[in-house]
Amino acid sequence: MSGWARFAHRFTQYYRTAELWTPPRLRTREWMFIPFGNGSPIRHKSFSTIESVRQFVCERPQHSCFYSTAYWKRPHELKMADKKWLGADLIFDLDGDHLPGVTDRDFPAMIDVIQEQAWSLWNDFLEPDFGFKEEFLQVTFSGHRGFHLHYRDPTYFHLDSESRREIVSHIRGEGVEVMDLLERLKDGKSSGWSKRISRGITSVIDKLDAIHSGNNSELKIMEANLKEMLDREGIKGLRGTNSIKKLAELLQDESRRKRVMEGRFVALNNHGSLLQNLIKSDSSVVLGNAGETDEVVTIDTRRQIRWPGSLHGKSGLRVTEFPLARLDPDSTNRFDCLREGIALSRDEKIRVEITEDDVIARFDDKIIDSARGDIIEIHEAGATFLVLKGWGRISKIS
Prior knowledge:
15 strands; 13 helices; 17% strand; single chain; 4-stranded antiparallel β-sheet; alpha+beta
């Protein structure tokens, strides 16, 4: 059996017995499937029961499965205008490949960063600033490079794209004036962005200290985050490597550092605006884009999202639902997607030839950090991940 046929067969075997999640108001959802091979996406499907969805994905192997975040009166219609939009969930997509300076070639490290971002989104923005309630929230690992926060409060179903954009703009910190918020802190008003800016000063200065000590990795991430924010908001000003290094050097003076920590950025002269922009970029959350457009997923009122319980065709990992509390990266019971997202067999051993350099993966407690040309033996779940990622090819089935 060829490699791709093997994956298609294993995916189908999984769907025959898996516990599959049922979306609320199932009959109003449009479904989309991407089959294995070169077939075109299958769209405009509707189902009345989850068992009929299971039957469909078992009859023809599916690489990836999606359902609409929108509710439609007639989801099976081929023209969007004929479907009759009824509303849509709020979806927050956090994906590691959208984070400046972060790469999925060190997969475990990327997941750690994006999980922290997802927790910050809820803990620092959605709950305190918008009053979102956990009872309406579903948290899922996307099955690949990030997390989805599905929010299903009926109050928000009928928000149009512009209203949803306002939520996104707040999360991004668009229009936030750092100095104004610092003045609010002096008046004892510590909430929302004021609180984040207060924390951000310490966070950015700690990172600048690391850069001053020669941490080039931190420098690259800081520079990329800053550039992404300045370009998005159309802000001109200091942004390059030399400017950041100079700011780090200026902050080594204890007297100047003390004044900056007190909110007196004038001590930095023209580097004061650079520090303000670094604090903003450090305190915001980067939301995933909708792919073919510049719109973030949250703004899209007709978005397709991966089906919880399905397998991700680019990793073989399961799109996995879990409790909000386990999203907290500091929790003693933190969710571990590289353990709990594994759905395929851990028993059968497969030999895989690594085809890429400088890639790192983890399955349970097993770290894969091999060079191009190395032959490793790994269980079926790990082999599926490495091949679907394009990091390896099956060498021999033992």
